[in-house]
User: Fold this.
Amino acid sequence: MNYIQTSNQLKPAGHYAQAILHHGLLYVSGQLPVNPDTGEKTAGDIEQQTRQVLDNLALILSEAGTTLNQVIKLVALF
Assistant:
């Protein structure tokens, strides 16, 4: 297992890995609409918050060497 951690301000809210690569699959932890530049939660409507979450996910995927185009499954909990 390889643990993935971004090197920017996007830090997990707890003691867990942002993502784990195991047997060729990348498992990414749940993401919040936090701006990685400021560390502040994105204020705004659901579209703005969803965009921030997807941008954060893209940062983690990039750190792991992949992109949103390779995502097999995405679960949104509202």
User: Anything to note?
Assistant: The chain has one domain: 2-70. The chain has a mean pLDDT of 89. Residues 2-70 form a domain with the 60s Ribosomal Protein L30; Chain: A; fold (CATH 3.30.1330.40).
